[in-house]
Queue: 2 jobs
Job 1
Amino acid sequence: MTTQMFIGASSSADPKKAAAESVAAALRASARPEHVASQPGSASPPGPALQPGPASPLGPARPAFALVLSTDQYDADALAAAVTSELPGVPWAGCCTAGVFAGSRLLRQGLVVGLVASDAVRVGVGVAHPVSQDGRRAGVLAASRALEGFPSSAAPGWSRALIVLPDALTGNAADVVRGAVEVGGTGVVWAGGGAGDNLRFVRTAQFAGGRAYSDSVVVVAIDSPARMATGIRHGFRPYGPPTMVTRAEGTVVAELEFEGAFSVYQRTARARGDQVNLDGFATFAMTHPLGIPQADGEHVIRDPLRVVTPGGLYCVGEVPDGCLIRVMEGDPIGLVSAAREAATTARDAVAGPIAGAFVFDCISRCMMLGDTVRDELTTFENELGQSVPVMGCLTFGEVGALGRGVPQFHNKTAVVLALGA
C-alpha cells in the first residue's frame, strides 16, 4: 500500500487526556472512508523491518511510526507512559518544544501526534546521551542505533531520511549533527530540530522507546519506497560586511577582527544608521542575527541571544574560529516568503503525491512574526497542498542541508520534510 499520514492534536493540560485525544483524532482521520480501503502495489524492503502487533488500531493502514511533539509543560515521564499506552506496538519518538501545530492551528500548550501508516516503510529509532559531555559521540551512537539492521544505503528506487532531535540546551547541537552525519552520510534527506522549553533554559525532553530523556539526542531513520525531500530557508539577507571570527569559544563569538564582537556589531549597525546598546541588544538582534557565508552564497544563521563579558556574543549554536560572518537582517514578509520557498522546494523534489509533512520552525521566527505566525503556518499548508496533512513544532535550532551543502545545525530557519505517498 502507499504511505499515509494522519494527524491528531490536543490542548489538554493533562498528559493522559492529551495522549488519548490526539491519538484518537489521528485514528479517526485514518478511519475516514477514503483511507479505509487497502491499497496494493508496494513491495517490502529487503531485510528486517519493524512490524506492529496483529491488533493494529489502524486496520488496513499498518502503523509504521508516530512522531510525537509536545510543549514543555507536561511531566515528561507521565506523557511518555501515556503515549505508549495509546500506541501499543507502534514505534514512536519525539521531543518537547516551545509550541506545536497541526495544520495552521498553533498550540502553545498541547500535543500533536503524526501517525505514518504503510506496509512498506521501514523505521528505526536511536537515542544516546549525554550530549553535554560529548555531543559528537552521542550523535554517532544515536544514528548508529537508528540505522541498526538497515542496509548501508537505501534500496534502489527507495529514499532514506534521518530526523535529528537533540537537546539544544545542554550541549553543542552542531557537534551532535556532525556525529549523526558521520554515520548517516550526506546522500540522504536530513531534517529535525532542537528540543526547547520556550526559552526558559531549564530542561527539555526527548522521547524514544516509550521513555523520556534529557541531555540526549534522538535520531529517527526512515526508508521509504516513495521519495522524501526537504526544503530549508530562513529569509534573512546580508546587512553588514563580512568580518572574520578571530576568537570563538563554542557558542560565544568573542572577537571579530581581533576586537570585541559586540563592539564590531555595534559599529556595523551604526554604519547603517542604527544605534544598538546593551539594553536594546536582544530586541535588535532578533531581526539582525549573524550569518555564516557558504560556498554557494547561502548563509547559515546564528542567533545571538545576549552579550557576555567582556563583549562577546552568546549564540544558539557554535561559530567556528576563523570563519567569516555577517550581520543579517530580516522582516515578516521575508520570513513568510522563505516558508513558501521551503515548502515548494520540498513539494517539487517529491515530484508526486505527498502523504504528509513534518515542519521544524524556529521559535524565534514565531517571535518575529507575532500574531502573523498563522500566515506562515497557512503558507506551509497552501504550498504543500490543501489535502496534505502538515504538523510541526517551534524548535530551538533546526537541522538540514542548504542546497547541496552538508547537513548542519541552523537557527531562525524553517525546515519542511515532505513524505511521498
Job 2
Amino acid sequence: MLKIAVLRGGGLGDLLFAMPALDALAEAYPEAEIVLLGTPLHQQLLDQRPGPVSRVEVLPTTAGVSSADGSTDEDGTRRFLERMRAEGFDLACQLHGGGRNSNPFLLGLGARHTVGTATPDAAALDRMLPYVYYQHEVVRWLETVALAGALPVTGEPRVVASRAERARGRSLLGRRGSGVVVIHPGATDPRRRWPTERFAELARRAATRGNTVVCVGDAGDAELADRIVRQAASDGRTEVVSLAGRLSLSDLVGVLARADVFVGNDSGPRHLAQAVGTSTVGIYWVGNLINGGPLSRATQRVHLSWTTRCPVCDRDVTQVGWTAERCEHDDSFVAEVGVDDVDADVESLLNARSLRSVA
C-alpha cells in the first residue's frame, strides 16, 4: 500500500487550511494511507471522522515544528523520526511553513519522495515551491501537493459533524429563538480581536430581535465572553449566554453545526464553523484576509480593517510573516470595523436561512 506522510503542525485553522490539499491527495491516490503528522488538537478533531486522513501521529516537541516555546525534546524527536522511518513512507509532504525547521524534520522521515515549500535558506526537498508569506494558505498547500500530481477537488475545507455531535449541540443550545447566533470573541493574536463592547452591542441587537445568542471559546476566552454577556445584558432585558471554557472540541463542532450564523475574529472556530457548513461573518485585518479569509461570499461574509500601522507606535505592520519583528503593542487592528455593517450581514444571513427553510 502506498503511504503518504503530511506534516502540518499549528492550530485548528492551520489544519483546516490544509484540508483541501489532503482531499486532493486522497483523490489522486485513493488506495494510499495518508498519515497526518499533527497535534493533539488535530487528532481530537479527525479521530473516527470521515475524511482523507487515515490516522494522526502526534508530533514530538520540536522547535519550529510543534513547539510553542521554541524548545526541542531531543530524545522524543529522535524516537519519533526513527518510528516514522520504519513506516517506509513513499511520499512526504511539508504543508507547514517556510521549511527552515520543517524541511530537515521532513527529510528525517526517510520518505522516497518529498515535496514542500522553502525559503531561500531552507533545506532542499525533491520538489519545492518558494515560500512567499502573502499567499492564501489553502491555495499554497494545493499548489504544493500538485507537485506530487494531486490536483484540486475541493476549494475550501469541509468537516462532517456526526449525528451525535449535532444532537449534543442541540442540547447545549437549549431553547432556540428565531435563529441561533454564535459569537467567538477570541483570537490567538490579540491584535485580531474586535473590541468586546462591539461584540456586546451586536449580541444585544441579535437577542433583542428574538435570536438565541451564545458565546463560545476555550478557557482563555471565558473572561472575554463573560464581559460580553454582562455588557449585552446591562439593560436588564437581554439574555446572552456563554459556553466559553465549557465545551470539548466535539461539543464545539456540534454547537457550530447547529448555529445559523457565526460571528467572530480570524480564528480557528471561525474556520471550523465554515467547514461544518455554517454561515459566518468574519472580522479581519486585511493582511490576515489575504492569507486565511473565506474564498466564497454567498454564506461567508467578511469585514475588513485596512490598518497598516500600529495604532500606538505607528510602526509599519504589513510585514507580519513569521520572520518579521513586531512591536510590543497588542492594540486591536480591527477596531475600525463598525457594528452596523456586521449586524446587517448577520441579519441578511439569518433571513436567507429562513427563506431556505421555507422553500
